[in-house]
Design goal:
7-stranded antiparallel sheet, 14 strands, mainly beta, 3-stranded antiparallel sheet, Pnp Oxidase, Chain A
Length: 202
């Protein structure tokens, strides 16, 4: 099968997201200029560089109340955010935080998430995330879109990293034990629960 996306697709549901997986979920926490915390999951997310460490996520679509989504509005205002990671144990809270809340509503409260004070930035970290990446905004990039919906890539420099000590074993990160969840297609998710090693050939 072959098709050109701009001409449509032969499925009831667009399969694009189901073809690129698993996609790590950046559970982005931010704070408004008025001090209201926000946390929301983004599956268009990844690490993009390591010297210095940098991450990106994309905010697609608009807020139900008009304009940018709260995460993007907050980050443009404060220039800071935290990347948290949803796990098997926090998947329900992550899902709750994905709903549409008013700009003055705190998703941490609705999802019953405990905040932890970040070290270098103002937005709170998700306490139950095994890792928190404290970020400073580097730049935003407006993406091409076929609709009137807003689509913006956010690039941030990771200026501080918190790792729960129980996931550090013999000087290495025990990634599998963190049980990160990732996005697949439709309403499907997966859990990272196994690994294998490959050594790069010389």
């Amino acid at each position: 099968m072959f098709y050109e996306p701009k001409k449509g697709h032969p499925f009831k549901i667009d399969p694009y997201k189901a073809l690129i997986f698993p996609r790590p979920i950046g559970w982005i926490s931010s704070v408004s200029k008025n001090g209201v915390a926000n946390v929301a999951p983004y599956s268009y997310f990844n690490a993009i560089a390591d010297e210095p460490p940098q991450v990106m996520f994309c905010s697609n679509g608009e807020s139900s109340y008009g304009g940018y989504k709260d995460s993007l509005t907050n980050i443009l205002s404060t220039k800071e955010f935290v990347v948290n990671f949803a796990t098997k144990n926090t998947r329900d809270a992550m899902n709750i935080s994905s709903s549409n809340y008013k700009p003055n509503e705190d998703e941490f409260v609705f999802a019953k998430l405990k905040k932890r004070k970040s070290k270098l930035v103002k937005p709170p970290s998700v306490n139950d995330s095994p890792v928190n990446l404290e970020c400073k905004l580097l730049k935003t990039l407006k993406l091409k879109t076929n609709t009137k919906k807003l689509s913006t890539m956010v690039i941030g420099e990771v200026v501080g990293i918190y790792i729960n000590n129980k996931f550090i074993q013999n000087g290495r990160i025990d990634s599998v034990s963190m049980r990160y969840i990732s996005r697949m297609g439709y309403s499907e998710y997966s859990t990272v629960s196994s690994k294998f090693n490959l050594k790069r050939p010389e």
